[in-house]
């Protein structure tokens, strides 16, 4: 591993699907450190989920992949399927949007929590149950749920159980795909607080995919902004949200409701992201960018100091962002 503390290192990841005009992921670079929460944000269809799934080689059939992915130093794309299975059962775990889809409705929660640990790690029943109790406490639930069935519990409780289950193997990396989207706002906030406690207590690195910038700001240390399969900007959450440097980040922020001004009229981003049948030359955001110049259409900007924009050095987007909002 090139940096000892990184639990996930993605370099130059490109993914091509059949019958498309361009790669669905194109040169993605992203890292997650130990005990770090990293958010991956962007509009629907930008490639967030595919990036997350690629980390565990959960790829669509016939996808062609280039680049490198390392989890805790191990090369995911070249490892054997046996090693990959062990990695998925141990070093890295995934949490999806809908907890009900992840839990067998016919099994008690206790069995759900302990069965993969018993099978994959040959751990004795008592030890697995002791670990399940410890993790239930860590996610704020009592042992009582061990004997309950999924239908007896709320969506928020089930998502806590899914998170407890993901932690059973003591993973170094937790991959979360919109884990709070199906939950109400209060429960959402509880799950966010829970993930923050978990990374402190267990040192787990978390990659958190969301299209909700407010959530990303609340939870993450660093943020990666994705557009049309490319990372257009990344950096510490405070500076990225306080002073965005890519026009797309600024546009996303301008279209996000703010706590301090929830009734302010939001500036929707005009136009649509390019679909996979559109070939792209130049900057992928050029067709929708208010600051576009000829060079943007002709030449693809490479990331420099965390931002891929030809005009990053001259634009002051935080000021423009305020101007884009009007009280309504
Ligand atoms: N298995 C697949 N086969 C074909 N196309 C796919 C497949 N999975 C995803 N895609 C396409 O790849 C693009 C990126 O999808 P992805 O799910 O990664 O986006 P996303 O940013 O996570 O969006 P959302 O927030 O809606 O989940 C989309 O255009 C999607 O239609």
Task: Provide a descriptive summary of the structure in words.
With 328 residues, this protein is α/β, with parallel strands linked by helices. Helix content is 34%, strand content 19%. It is built from twelve helices and ten strands. The protein has a six-stranded mixed beta sheet with strand order 6-7-8-3-9-10, sandwiched between helices. Helix 7 links the parallel strand 7 (173-177) and strand 8. Helix 5 packs across helix 6 (155-167). The protein is globular, with a radius of gyration of 21 Å. The N and C termini lie far apart (51 Å). The chain binds adenosine-5'-triphosphate. Adenosine-5'-triphosphate binds at residues 17, 24, 42, 44-50, 60, 211, 276. Belongs to the ABC transporter superfamily. Residues 8-253 form the ABC transporter domain. One of its GO terms (molecular function) is ATP binding. It is a peripheral membrane protein. This is ABC transporter ATP-binding protein.
Q: Which geometry do the CA atoms define? A: globular
Which strand-content bin applies to the residues? 15-25%
* Rg, alpha carbons: 21 Å
Structural class label: alpha/beta
The biggest sheet, with number of strands, parallel, antiparallel or mixed sense and barrel status, is: 6 strands, mixed
The ordered string of helix (H) and strand (E) elements is EEEHEEHEHHHHEHEHEEHHHH
Strand segment count: 10
Q: How confident overall, as mean pLDDT?
A: 90
Low-confidence stretches: 324-328
What small-molecule ligands were found?
Answer: adenosine-5'-triphosphate
Strand order of the largest sheet: 6-7-8-3-9-10
């Amino acid at each position: 591993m090139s940096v000892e503390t990184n639990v996930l290192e993605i370099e130059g990841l490109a993914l091509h699907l059949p019958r498309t005009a361009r790669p669905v992921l194109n040169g993605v670079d992203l890292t997650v450190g130990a005990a770090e929460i990293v958010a991956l944000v962007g509009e629907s269809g930008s490639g967030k989920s595919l990036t997350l799934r690629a980390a565990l080689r959960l790829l669509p059939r016939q996808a062609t992949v280039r680049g490198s992915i390392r989890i805790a130093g191990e090369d995911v794309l070249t490892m054997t399927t046996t090693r990959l299975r062990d990695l998925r059962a141990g070093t890295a775990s995934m949490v999806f949007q809908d907890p009900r889809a992840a839990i067998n409705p016919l099994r008690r929660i206790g069995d759900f929590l302990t069965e993969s640990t018993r099978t994959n790690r040959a751990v004795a029943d008592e030890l697995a149950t002791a670990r399940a109790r410890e993790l239930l406490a860590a996610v704020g639930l009592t042992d009582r749920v061990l004997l309950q069935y999924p239908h007896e519990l709320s969506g928020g409780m089930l998502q806590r159980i899914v998170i407890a289950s993901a932690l059973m193997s003591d993973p170094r990396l937790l991959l979360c795909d919109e884990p709070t989207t199906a939950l109400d706002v209060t429960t959402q906030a509880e799950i966010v607080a829970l993930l923050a406690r978990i990374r402190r207590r267990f040192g787990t690195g978390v990659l958190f995919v969301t299209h909700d910038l407010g959530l990303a700001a609340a939870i993450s240390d660093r943020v990666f902004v994705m557009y049309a399969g490319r990372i257009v900007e990344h950096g510490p959450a405070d500076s990225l949200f306080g002073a965005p440097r890519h026009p797309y980040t600024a546009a996303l922020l301008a279209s996000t409701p703010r706590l301090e001004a929830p009734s302010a009229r939001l500036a929707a981003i005009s136009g649509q992201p390019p679909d996979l049948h559109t070939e792209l030359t130049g900057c992928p955001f050029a067709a929708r960018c208010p600051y576009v110049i000829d060079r943007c259409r002709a030449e693809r900007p490479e990331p420099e100091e965390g931002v891929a924009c030809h005009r990053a050095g001259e634009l002051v987007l935080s000021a423009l962002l305020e101007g884009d909002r009007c009280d309504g």
